Amino acid sequence: MAKLKRRRSDHGGWSGRGAIWLGVLVATLLVTGVAIHGREPVMDADGSAWLHWQRVATVVHGVFAWVFCVVAERWMWPHVALVWSRRNGNWIWELCLAAAIVGGVAALTGLGLLYGAADWRDALSSVHWWLGLAWPITVLWHVWKWIAAAFSGSGKRWQD
């Protein structure tokens, strides 16, 4: 917590490095998720090339999902601890709650896809797909003004 006090409070405890790592992980999860969901796992006319890449995407998606959990835990809990007392019911706070709920349900459906019954696969896959697309949009909407400030040259920059 001592490091949090030294960080600028307008970033909610996030460092530039943390935001970049989270962005890379989310982009990888999106790309691999599209590769997994984008086409039914069937044999191509020329062999099993697509099936091979779909399996690779599935493994990478699973590994990066676990890494995402570690990275998110590293920066999310300090963020919550720092901004919880500042909650004021505005739309940014409501987007934070929406992102937390959407992300939590997406994580649970991902675990269900990994460990759940085969009968649940179609339903879980559909829910996981749509939440996986909605979560990054919700988070970007939640942090839009900090992203805009970082790229506008206004002097407000992420500080490590």
Descriptive tags:
single chain, about 160 residues, mainly alpha, 6 helices
Topology:
Elements: H1 2-6, H2 16-37, H3 49-83, H4 91-115, H5 121-142, H6 144-152
Report on the structure:
By secondary structure, this protein is an all-alpha fold. It has one domain (2-152). 74% of the residues lie in helices and 0% in strands. It contains 6 helices and no strands. The chain has helices spanning 2-6, 16-37, 49-83, 91-115, 121-142, 144-152. Helix 2 packs antiparallel against helix 3, helix 2 packs antiparallel against helix 5 and helix 4 (91-115) runs antiparallel to helix 5 (121-142). The chain is globular and about 55 Å long.
Question: TL;DR of this structure?
Answer:
Helix 2 runs antiparallel to helix 3. The chain has helices at residues 2-6, 16-37, 49-83, 91-115, 121-142, 144-152. It is globular and about 55 Å long.
